[in-house]
Amino acid sequence: MSAGSPHLDLGELLAEVNGEAVSDWVPEHLAACPGCRAEAERWGAVAGGVRHLVAAISPPPCLPGGAPDGVVKASSSSRRRQARPRALARARGKGRLLVAAAAALMLAAGGLSYGLVRVLGGNENSSVVAAAGVTAVNGCPGLAATAGTLERVTGTSLVLKAPGGAPETVTTSASTKLSRQVAGTVSDITDGANVVVFGPGAHGGIAARRIIISALPELSSGPPAPRHRHGHGHPPTHAQKPNSSPPGGRAGGTVADASTGSFTVIMPGGFHLRVTTSGSTTVYAQATATLGQLQSGGFVVAAGSVTADGALAAATVEQGALMPHIQHGNGIVQEPWLGCSPSAVATALLLAAG
Amino acid sequence: LDDRYRVTGPAALASVRGAGPPGGGAPDPERLEAQMLRRIAGGDQGAMAEFYRRHGRVVFAQILLVVGERALGEEILQDTMLAIWRGAGSFRWESGVRSWVIAIARRQARDRLRRRRLRVVDDACLAEQPSRDPGPEVVALGRAEAAEVANAIRGLAPAHREVLGLAFGAGLSLPEVAGVLGVPLGTVKSRLTAARAALARLLEEKGLSR
To answer: Region A306-322: what's the mean pLDDT?
Structure first.
């Protein structure tokens, strides 16, 4: 009952309609007040319509990814570093998020992404990067990116093409940063280097099959602090059960304790992951390049701004050594803490390609 | 799944908010929700699946009421569940779990719609819309079948569908609706009243007032 009125107020009427007991006074008043009763009936009709509508709606029994907990499976490692799962993106089909890119943004930040490849591509050898057309980077006004194979270089412009997509023109200028992945060696991995490591789990760490040494962009801030599930000591390096080898994954961060055959990756938030190398470990480094050094048919990512004619004026162009499977997408999800430098986005896309 | 999270139905629902018996009896639903969120925050996938089973339907219905497109709704639902998976540890009981989840869904929907350069309805515009006392057209409400009302609801403005969904679909209290929408309680009331009036007019146009 509202102040100054002997009748039921809206809250009381709605509570009555929703079957919530407010007070004994309400039903008594309704029995005695035709006006309030009529109001309750009208709201009841509205509620009946809403409930009828809601009853006809069935949520997906299984979220894309396999099950209601598919969202968990798809994001279990991404939550640790706030990436977006490929499983969800795949289910969204064409024209969806560049999920892999977002996941890779973690990598660009050197963030903990152990196990991410399992989410993104099943193993460390089958990464996915989503790209089709020039794509806005959500959270970064004015920033856009694209990815695809390099069809040709015309003057200072590049033409990229994703499978099934239209060719995209990327313009460059003297200020565009160009780089490409070149072969490196394990000895190039020294303390302080930023790396992304791919490989299967081994003894609580990673047995590196592939390592990319990259001039990772300096980010404005670090990622959210990781949740420590067990006390305040050193966080676990992965979320597997004790004494179990984790599945394949990747990790990005700064190298420490580099020695023959192993080094430690320190990820933002203090995660330490031991990486072992072997004779079969492949190492790539991101090296400055010129337009002429970019190889036709190679995978290229570019980030910059969209021009009036729809081309991408690239601030950063990076060519990878590996050819990923390319998905179509219509947006790159940028985590706020990653910042919005073109280099961060481009490197992330490239690293998503693995 | 842990059986603790299977407790539903009258016994659980009868438990008074915040007054769950410490030593046994029907578990407090709120406490169960708290435990579930803690488990989700700790990375318990089973708890996340159970959370989806408990809230997915209502949340999805609310999303669909707003966006009106199933495929988009499913995307938003995914985003919402992912946000919950990421942020379960941040829940602070400043609201009920359901209104918290719906508020997350609402933000996700807004983000999605913004990317599509769509707008729901400007809140300020709605707030300025005068409340209407029941007029002659409300007669239509009394004559319409639930299915007819449901059909008419589809023709309402998204923000009107949204507020009706929150109040009657999700079953939130008016203060909770205000919290989800981020508007004053009075605005919720006027928006509800305006939604009902618009609904009645739609029904009247269909000849249900005769």
So the answer is: 82
- The per-residue pLDDT for B116 is 58
Measure the CA–CA gap between A197 and A192, rounded to whole angstroms.
15
> Which residue, among B32, B172, B41, B47, has the nearest Cα to B99 in the 3D structure?
B172
Cβ contacts of B91 on chain A, cutoff 8 Å: none
Report how far residue A41's alpha carbon sits from residue B143's, in angstroms, rounded to the nearest whole number. Answer: 11
Reading the block at residue A249, the tokens are: 């994954």
pLDDT exceeds cutoff 90 at B132:
no
A338's tokens: 């990653």
CA distances from A194 to A112, A182, A213, A256, B68 (A): 13, 15, 6, 10, 46
Q: Is the pLDDT of residue B1 over 70?
A: no
The answer to whether residue A41 neighbours chain B at the CB level (below 8 Å) is yes
E-only strand ranges, A237-295: 249-259, 262-267, 271-276, 282-288
Residues with Cβ within 8 Å of residue B7, at least 6 apart in sequence: B26, B27, B29, B32
Residue B188 has what pLDDT?
A: 92
CB pairs under 8 A between A and B: 151
Helix or strand or coil: residue A226? coil
Flag whether residue A12 sits within 8 Å of chain B, measured between CB atoms: no
| Residue B89 sits at the chain A interface (C-beta within 8 Å) | yes
Of residues B43, B49, B173, nearest to A239 (C-beta):
B43
d(CA A301, CA A309): 19
42-101 of A, contacting B, C-beta below 8 A:
42-43, 45-54, 56-60, 63-64, 67-69, 71-76, 79, 82, 84-85, 88, 91-92, 96
Contact predicate B46/A69, CB 8 Å: yes
* A36 vs B contacts (CB less than 8 Å): none
- Which of B199, B149, B167 shows the shortest CA–CA distance to B61? B167
Average pLDDT over residues A42-50: 87
Of A60-74, A107-121, B13-27, give the range with the top mean pLDDT: A60-74
The pTM of this model reads 0.43
User: Among all residues of chain B, which has the CA nearest to that of A85?
Assistant: B82
Complex ipTM: 0.71
Q: Residue A353 corresponds to which amino acid?
A: A
Tell me what pLDDT residue A62 has. Answer: 52
